[in-house]
Write a structure and sequence with these properties.
Number of strands: 0
Strand content: under 5%
Distance between the termini: 46 Å
Number of helices: 2
Structural class: mainly alpha
Oligomer: single chain
Shape: rod-shaped
Helix content: over 70%
Amino acid sequence: MKMKFRLQRVLDLRAAQERRVQQELGTLQQAHRVILDRLDRLREAQGTLFDFLKQQKGCSIDLLRLQHGYVYSAELEKELSAQEKKRQESSLLVEQQRERVKGCWRKRRMLEILKGKAEAGFREVVKKEEQKQLDELVLFAFTESSRERLKEVNG
């Protein structure tokens, strides 16, 4: 005999909500990784540019090339700054979503614990009922055997 948990629909809803929030977290983490990759590529480009500019200092100075290098460096710095801001915002969103996942998990887990307690209580009631029926059966069997013995003795 299986007991029906009164809050099963709520538990199912919480589990579905938790899965949805986890999927959203995965999407945010993926977007965060894209931002980190972009930031790494920008830093790599900046490092390459600095290496190039260092090499130019030892050679004959090409003012136009040097000027373009510094303009490009300024643009890279601006893009790095913007990308770093995006990274910080993305990190915050990911952390907030993690907290939502934890909250959903706690709510679902609380209902699962209640379900477990309800099932344990139900099993205890069934066990007591079974014991009561066994006791009645034994009493009935004892009563019947006592009647049989009395009939034999009296009869």
